[in-house]
Design a protein that fits this description.
mainly alpha, 1% strand, membrane, transmembrane, signal
Length: 284
């Protein structure tokens, strides 16, 4: 119980930090006073014709800009325009804000990471946004792994027991090729990543295998979403990113890894039988 309370305390502190970071958005024109307000009003005037009245979407509160997690493409488009305006003058602040928000969502398994990838594409482009998202995804997932291991183990085992047992059996079955199996789980488009992040420490998956499997395994997904974010203005729905062609490509990559796992496992059994035969032992 004490661990759960401590984990809840960490979540509260992290939430306060994110809100504080959003609340101290710098004055773009500098000089203190109402510099930030003037800059926001200028941005509102420059952007209103293309994105509509910003305040109607809840991005503005009176004359001040309110930074918040986007819930749909309309919110995301407005937020991307606002942060792009800030990025030209305060790049370090925007980068810190983005990285902090991304890690926050990943560490606490908050839905909506697809919007963060889209935002990365819009802000940083594919060249920088893609490797950044891959690294942040792996770090954030590892943070979730550690929180589950040290603070949420008892709660997760009670709530996810029915789903943990099948995963535990699969992990044990593939113990000799665990990294390949973990990679396949990440590459397969329908893998529940939030569940894998929480469950991995509970089924004895080492962090040494966990981190690189997330880093590499989610590269196709991260690339597709970041690339889509770089063309944000042409998207009308999140579903536009996941066409039949895209899903088939991701599935083909996942299946190739599965074939590799099966071949490696069969080779290992064959090698074991050969070694046993040489030693004059029974293959049984």
């Amino acid at each position: 119980m004490a661990n759960i309370l401590l984990g809840a305390g960490i979540a509260v502190l992290a939430t306060c930090y994110i809100y504080w970071l959003a609340a101290i958005s710098p004055s773009v024109h500098g000089g203190g006073g109402n510099g930030g307000t003037v800059a926001v009003e200028q941005w509102r005037g420059d952007s209103a014709s293309s994105v509509g009245v910003a305040s109607a979407h809840g991005v503005f509160n009176s004359s001040q800009a309110t930074l918040r997690f986007p819930k749909n493409l309309d919110d995301l488009t407005i937020l991307a325009k606002l942060l792009t305006f800030y990025k030209e003058r305060y790049f370090a602040y925007v980068l810190l804000l983005f990285c902090s928000a991304y890690l926050y969502k990943q560490c606490f398994a908050i839905p909506g990471s697809v919007f963060m990838n889209l935002l990365a594409g819009a802000l940083f482009g594919v060249l920088y946004g893609f490797p950044l998202c891959c690294f942040l995804t792996a770090c954030g997932a590892s943070g979730c792994y550690l929180l589950s291991k040290h603070f949420g183990k008892d709660l997760a085992e009670r709530m996810l027991r029915a789903r943990l047992l099948p995963l535990q059996r699969k992990v044990e079955d593939h113990r000799d090729s665990l990294f390949s199996f973990l990679l396949f789980l990440r590459l397969f488009p329908m893998s529940p990543n939030w569940f894998l992040n929480i469950a991995s420490p509970l089924v004895n998956v080492p962090l040494l295998y966990f981190f690189p499997s997330v880093l590499i395994g989610l590269m196709p997904y991260n690339f597709i979403t970041v690339e889509a974010g770089s063309m944000l203005s042409s998207l009308t729905s999140v579903n536009d990113m996941f066409t039949l062609s895209t899903m088939l490509k991701m599935s083909a990559v996942a299946l190739s890894v599965l074939v590799f796992i099966l071949v490696k496992k069969r080779f290992a059994k064959s090698q074991l039988a050969t070694d046993s035969s040489k030693l004059g032992l029974s293959a049984h």
